Amino acid sequence: MDEGKLDIELLHEILSKKGSKNEGVIKSGEVGLDVATLDISAARKKAQEFYNTTSETYLIVKSDPVTFPTSEPGRYAVIVNANDVVCSGALPYGFLATIIVPPKTKFEEIKEIQNQIHQQCHDLGISLLGGHTEISKSVRDIIISGHMIGFVPEDFYVTNELSEGESIIIVGEIGAEGIGILISEADGYIQKILDPAELENGILIGKRLSLGDIANIINKKFRPSLIHDATEGGLYGALSEILYNRDVGIQLFQEPSINPIMKKLSDWLSFDPFRIISSGLIIFSVAKNKTNDFLNFLKEYQIPGSLIGSVTNEKGILRLGDNILEKPISDEIIIALENLERLKNEKV
Fold this sequence. Notes:
The chain has helices spanning about 10-15, 40-50, 75-85, 105-125, 175-185, 195-205, 210-220, 235-245, 260-270, 290-300, 330-345; strands at about 5, 25, 35-40, 55-65, 90-100, 125-135, 145-155, 165-170, 225-230, 250, 280-285, 305-310, 320, 325. Helix content is about 40%, strand content about 25%. α3 (about 75-85) runs parallel beside α4 and α5 (about 175-185) packs across α6.
């Protein structure tokens, strides 16, 4: 397609995808209508009903782009933004997406991205409110910048304030998004590392990034003091972010266990599995006396998760055993993809 905006007819086609129809959406994006209009009082009602409370509600906003290679960028754009909104205790409500593609991109590719956004919003009960789509020579690859809004009642808002003695529990798979990216980018080389069953399981893990429903239920049931999504920088990167400029530290009991598929990939491409992009892995800090009930809840509903550490009084220190873990410089997905490209070139 040529540089500039989409043709009006094509724009109308993709704007017809609206995600989920939520009460309170008065108007969403249309051709000739560049804004969405919401009835905030109706929008807040959904969160109040979920938490069974009548307390005042906060509006939560989040913006995050998808820039790493992925086979489903539209789907991921919704998930990563929804996960972050959920970490405040909020129920995701509305989404907007800015899609910038390089010239010569086919309309079918843009349409597929919009279909992914629509379907994921529909699955998560989120209204697609609008956004912007443009063809521009300023980009070499497709860029999607998402903007999510959500609502949380005041008495269920997660303050993200850690206290000494609390338990650190992770829910989800370490490196799930990294696994998905590497399998997608490895092409035929992946069969040399993973057998068919592992490959099928790895693809499923790479798609299992949305933990919003689980996180909201956990917030309602156990009232954690902190919920944090491990994205760029992986688990250790997320823990380092949590501790930045705080008066507490975290002691990890031992190196957390990883999926055998992640172990094979990290050995093959020489990267640190604890520092690779891990959307879909959520970190919780809960009162020590709630730990067993929390773990039993995960076990009962067959949700992957484990107790990995506790909050200490060492200001800003992340410790594994006796060793202090350094803050991450960049995501290990960069190293993994560089090593993968090197292996491909060696075979040429």
